[in-house]
Design goal:
Chains A, B: Pfam families: ABM (PF03992). The structure is a homodimer of 116-residue chains. By secondary structure, the first copy, chain A, is an alpha+beta fold. Helix content of chain A is 30%, strand content 37%.
Chain lengths: 116, 116
């Protein structure tokens, strides 16, 4: 269960909030998503990810990064660019992508700051 | 489908990224979540929400706000305080809450800025 959370991050840091509605079907999506998640972990400045999707195919993935430069670098990674292109053409009926700066954070249920 | 997305927001604005793992069972959670979502919509500075949860009970809810003051006001709203208290005691096995400033945003699959 703990593995679903990005733990131990100290603000400020940055996030990419990716909300998306998958098409049905979305052939090849699962395999690509796994490859991209594994690839993101190898990128400079990657801090972690939280991701979930419901039975209707609506998903939210929030990835965390040390800097906006790290996000820009990941966006331009070549395999990732190819996945983005296929995603826009074949997998996503709609998406919103937002880049954010995390100002403060808490974890619980104990309510302490999420610094440990 | 469009109703799942927070549309037409112009950066900068603010977000609360709430990642959470529900206990199983979590009695009363669904009704509370619906009441809180309806209440949030009535709060000053509320801009929208994106939310999803998988079959394992791992959820992400991102609510969007005009200002950090609006977020602070919502956090202290009395019915919401009661829900937070019950949530910490009864519903959430674990959560992370992060407050972020949205710097820029895009929507697709057409790739245009998410300003329309």
């Amino acid at each position: 269960m703990m593995g679903r959370f990005a733990e131990g991050l100290v603000p400020p840091y940055f996030a990419v909030i990716f909300a998306n509605q998958l098409r049905d079907p979305a052939p090849g999506y699962e395999a690509m998503a796994e490859r991209m998640a594994a690839l993101a972990e190898t990128m400079p400045g990657y801090l972690g990810v939280e991701s979930t999707r419901d039975a209707e195919g609506f998903g939210l993935t929030v990835s965390y990064w040390e800097s906006e430069a790290a996000i820009a670098h990941w966006k331009k990674q070549s395999d990732h660019l190819a996945a983005q292109d296929t995603g826009m053409r074949e997998w996503y009926a709609r998406y919103h992508l937002r880049v954010a700066r995390i100002e403060r954070a808490y974890a619980g249920p104990d309510g302490r700051p999420a610094l440990t």
